[in-house]
Amino acid sequence: xxVCIFGAGAIGGFLAAYLSKxxxxxxxxxxxxxxxxxxxxxxxxxxxxxxxxxxxxxTNDSQEIGTVDxxxxxxxxxxxxxxxxxxxxxxxxxxxxxxxxxxxxxxYGLDSSRENRIAKDILDPSGILHREVASQxxxxxxxxxxxxxxxxxxxxxxxxxxxxxxxGLPKFSGNCSLEAISKCMFDAGLQAPVxxxxxxxxxNKLIVNLxxxxxxxxxxxxxxxLAYDDEITEITKEMIxxxxxxxxxxxxxxxxxxxxxxxPDYRSEHRSSMLQDWDGKRPMEIDAILKVVCLFAKKxxxxxxxxxxxxxxxxxxxxxxxxxxx
Length: 326
Prior knowledge:
Layout: E1 2-6, H1 10-21, E2 25-29, H2 32-41, E3 43-47, E4 50-54, E5 57-59, E6 68-73, H3 80-86, E7 91-100, H4 118-123, H5 128-132, E8 138-144, E9 148-151, E10 154-157, E11 164-168, H6 179-187, H7 198-219, H8 223-227, H9 230-249, H10 258-262, H11 273-279, H12 286-300, H13 305-320
Parallel strand pairs: 1-2, 1-6, 2-5, 3-10, 6-7, 7-8
Antiparallel strand pairs: 3-4, 8-11, 9-10
Helix pairs in contact: 7-9, 7-11, 7-13, 9-12, 12-13
């Protein structure tokens, strides 16, 4: 399969390494030092006990790639505008676009009335993605694959288990089959289950990111350290309960496993992707992971004082560092 990875950082590089190893024709859209490293030395992935090296074509110009069968968008939410500007040359008649990203997707709620399109208004304010990526192309993907960029072109995922990339369709997409995409990923050694209720999968992952990542940035510590602090754990629990009420207002019933959500036994020393962005002084996914949920809460009449306070603190910290203008 001809595949383009748009945004080849930690997750994009992880995907590219395995898809290349499985003899797919893989190309990367990247920038900066990562792009230069991919051009000179390829991708070096250290995954648990395994080492994978691949040499996909890398560029910052989508016109040099042309149309592909499949695009994986693995940028962070602040990079979506750039995707909208550059994605058109990649799109053939049958091309699917898999948005493998954290938080609420930009297309969430596009099937509802215009006044309820909060996610699109915040995450795609110019409307460029809505114009460039037709609804029948969109595939959702929830990622469970802790990884980080250790150096330009070098990606580390300490967990030995396979990366899990849960696939699903937005409610408005009809009955398109995802079997070919799932098989491509399975054949590359990745887990790619297809779920019918993709919004449920989004909220299950979101509630973890929302209740940990902002607190990690505010404190500067990894997920394990957060869980050992009783007061932080109480804040985490409050945010989970508030977010679960918002999900319920959206027709999503979450089953909360408090041991897995709160106890250190089920956590690692992983620095969340939001904390990694803070460490690198890069724009963070504040809007997709927290702000949109707070706006959902307000729209639904759900009280969310803890989420709102954490959002205010995180916003102020990011603005002071010059990496947030939302």
